[in-house]
Amino acid sequence: MSETATVRADDPFRLRFEAAPPDGLDEDCVRLQYRRNGGPWTAVEAHDFPYPLRELELEFALRADGRLPPGWRAASLEEPLLALYPAPWNVEDAFAFAAEYRLDPAGPGNASLVFGYADPDHHWRLTLDAEAGRVRVVRVVGGTAQLVAEQPAAVRAGAWQQAEVKLEEGLLEINFNDDAVEFSLPAPSSLPAREFGFLLPAPGAAEFRSFVIEGEPRSPRVSVVAAGTYEDGAPTADLLAGIAAPHGGGSGVSLAACAPLSLAAGAHAELEWPLVIRRFADGAVTNEPGDVFEFRLADSAGRAVAGTPISIVTLDVPAGHLGGTFVETPGRVGPWRTANGDLYFIMEPAESDNLFMMVKSTDGGRSWQEVDGANRPATGDLEAVDARLVGDTIHILHQVTEATFYHAFRTSGHADAPDTWAVTDEPATSVTARAQMATLVVRPDGTMVALHLGDTIGYSIRSTAGEWSPEVVLDHDGLETAGPQAVLGAGGIVHLAYYGLDGTIWHRRLLPDDTLTEAQLLDDGAAVGEDHFGAVLPLVYRPENDTLVVLYRRADGRLYERRITGTSPASPATLVAALPVVQHAVDSQQAGADAAGWDGGIVVAFIDQVDRSVYTTVNRGDGWQAPALQVEGIRGAWVRGNVYRRDDGALVYGYVYDAGSEGGAGMNRYAELVLEPAGEPVVLRFAVLGDAEPKPEPEFPNLAAAVSDVNALAADGRLDFVVGVGDIAHKGTLVQYENAAAVLEQLELPFYPIMGNEEHDSTTERFLEFANRWNNGQAEIPGPRYTRDLGPLVMVHASPDHGRDFNDEGVAWVLAQVRAAYPRPVFLVVHGAQAGVYPENPDKGVANPAFAEVVAQPNLAAVISGDLHMDMDRVEHSKQLGRVHYLHIPALERTKIPDATQHTPMFRVFTVTASGEVLVDTYQAGRPRPLDRHAYRFSLSP
What is the CB neighbour count within 10 angstroms for residue 581? Predict the structure, then answer.
């Protein structure tokens, strides 16, 4: 409580305030403010995540004590009743406010929707008058009502009716009873007031079944989001212990800009706010790792509420996290790797601000930044983008509904103007698209072929002088076509594959003299309908044997391929993967899949239609492998990647996927699939098993699965030994030791465990007896602390002296071992790292202050620990603090942090190369491939 916490970008969290404001606070609804890195205090608006909500439906029912419902306020409780609600979004340029209502026949028979509200004497009304049978727009200025417009309408008392007022493109649009009456009028230059509501004259009455506010969605740096587990205004319990005054209530906020705060004298309240801090926000503004955000409660005038604390959080951006919004395109948008190792990718900052961004990573995909944002293309709406890296320039085709544009970006390898936009917003065509779909090829002579979708497919050619030819419509005997994909073949030939609206798939060639070959039918079993226009995946061309590979989705949801070598007929259709692939996941009309090739084969990444996880399959010339799960537990929509070789020599398919934004923002992440391992010699490779300690039953199924996997890895390649970080036997009981022994004795490698706090519930002698028994004579465990010289590094195995901590003697022993190894690097294996390393449970770990000298040693390279039972998918499990890398080993039998609701048994494998590079892979028990999302790399060199 009242401590700085670390939160992840684009990962919603909750902030709870214990507040005891002064008596007589004249507000019954307080707001939240933030400031970033000591900047100005800024109001926190309500915009949902990952998709910023455009529509809010309001409740209106007086509470039992006669007070207004949460969020509403009364400008007048006398005659007339004027009740108001603040919109959680910006409404200066556009809004819609609607209500479903029923007038009391016994009353005056009129009511008004109120908008543009400044004060009781300055606002606008949409008045619904049953007695006069009119709908009126009224402006109140200086307390005087002025009629602006009116129309006759069948306004009836006693019947449910609807009314809406909308501000859009400078017009006020009025709609009554689903278009029974509709008209518009010029709006004033601005309607800056954010409050909406209703006015009811006495002695009238009305029932309201719903109020709906729609506004322009925004994605600011910070926003209040929907809580998910409770409704806005839900009462809170007394959970925090900082204020001794009695608990007087409080509420949980959910997608609202304010929280009710009405307390009896001397009482305190607890308020809970669900928040998100975005990596990229509107305007492509960026929140950076290490940014400090302070939060406080404020009144409607922006003044801090006395008696309430300031809460502080620090921002973390996990490795591989891009954030932002995926381009809704069937084409290629990266990532591309340049000759100097930099990666580039095209995306938008937010769903609510469709800016064209080129983002770059200089550290192999771990972190990303926009490049040359000041000169980015002015054309937004990235729904059809296709690009090619040629030399040091990325050439880009960009189709919007009304036209198609060409951009070009110079990468960091450019000699004269690195990392700059070379061409932006160059018109290529002015064809109106029935659906945005475009593809680009750069030919060897420097000319470019741009294919796009109007009513059907057409193409234009850019000369080396930068001039675009008139559009040529693709003639296909009257068949309407869509979903073009193109790739450069041998001799400047452009291969084109596309979709026919009758569910067919076709192939043609555009020859260097700009003539088209006859269409070749590849399949007639694709699904029919606009949602399936993008059935063809990005094309793959294999220059080593002049082979085009066309991959596409059939009506059964599965991917198939046909190969065309030279001018030979296409090969028979081959099933790529038995799993169905998602189609048109989020307003993009494309198959949720990607394909890329290299001179050794083809890789396909796809999103399963059922579980929406990311899978890959590879064909190295011997058929398609069974799909391998890469990323699970998401609602994937898009995936795009390329094949390239890393600095360490490994050949990888690097890809960016959307982890479940549903068309919103904040879920773009980078991952790699290793296709060929690095050629550098491996000098050491070992596995590490985490806590087991099952409860309540002494059963070890996940430990057994991990042992089986480790044995399989050892059989498949180099694996030298296995390390244990303690807590195998719960409470150190004999039955736990015996049952664990039945599993660990199956290990075919030496096993080097240490004790944990659980083993300390029994004796050191019992631990040593079983530790040596587990080894079957393959290794000797001499005591609870021991050191091993492994050549490239020294490994120190240090059991705690009590619980999970060390006494002074134990710290001194560890310190002596690390110093004795100098200058060689040391891996320190302990049960728990020092307290505070993992903020998910900062109080748990080594508390002896003398341990600080151990981690300050210049040759301590890594601390390997377990104990916390953390879920790898929901915590930061690997990090560098100072010189030391901290590697958490997850528990095999059960998870505790951040909660126990989700458990995935995993273990980790460390690989050390001859140059001192260390790769830490994470394996899920029962899965043969490492999980790319949890890979971690570092160097033993200082």
Answer: 22
